[in-house]
Amino acid sequence: MSAVDSDVLGRFRDGDEEAVKAVYNRFSGAVFALSLTILRDRGRAADATQMTFVKAWRSASSYDPDREFGPWIYSIARRTAIDIYRKEKRRVPTDSVVVTTEGASMVRIWEVFQVRAAVDLLSDDERQVVQMSHFEELTHPEIAERLDIPLGTVKSRSHRAHRHLVELLGHLQGEPE
């Protein structure tokens, strides 16, 4: 899985708007997954994702381009999600919220990142079906209706996409947590 190239990361560090967008497009899925693991709420996880990238943009000059970007952005995301959790915990009675304070393991975060990166490698048609099926939780008939394509086409795209994902993610099978 290719990472964002060093030129983009250097421009990100300098605050270049296009580089910030490229970094967001590359890492927002994994940041959202991490936030969702901590907050257990899609809306709050989306807020945490946005806040993470705002914080990263504001502190971009502190990013060391000689180090991997992923761990840097994930640490910002984790702290942001925990801050949101703590803020909500103070406002809402504890018996009405069920949230885990255990963070996701680095192995789990890496696996989520690998899955998101593999999905990004699918063709546009395959990726669209996978995202609607798994992230929006739509059924095949609902996807066919939304895309205005035959149900058989949705099923064949889904089958092809999942076959590609198995090939791309085979290295994750059998890894201990």
What does it look like?
The chain contains eight helices and no strands. By secondary structure, the protein is an all-alpha fold. It folds into two domains: about 1-105, RNA polymerase sigma factor, region 2, helix turn helix motif (Rna Polymerase Sigma Factor, Chain: A, Orthogonal Bundle); about 120-175, Arc Repressor Mutant, subunit A. The radius of gyration is 18 Å and the shape is globular. About 25% of the residues are buried.
Radius of gyration based on Cα positions: 18 Å
CATH class type of the largest domain: Mainly Alpha
CATH topology of the largest domain: Rna Polymerase Sigma Factor, Chain: A
Mind summarizing the main beta sheet?
none
According to DSSP, the number of beta strands is 0
> What is the helix/strand order?
HHHHHHHH
Which regions are unreliable across 5 or more consecutive residues at pLDDT < 50?
A: none
- Give the overall shape: globular
**Percent range for β-strand residues:** under 5%
The total tally of domains equals 2
Q: Give the oligomer, counting copies of the same chain as homo and different chains as hetero.
A: single chain
Annotated CATH architecture of the largest domain: Orthogonal Bundle
Q: Quick gist of this model?
A:
This protein is an all-alpha fold and 177 residues long. It has 2 domains: 103 residues, Orthogonal Bundle (Rna Polymerase Sigma Factor, Chain: A), CATH 1.10.1740.10; 56 residues, Orthogonal Bundle (Arc Repressor Mutant, subunit A).
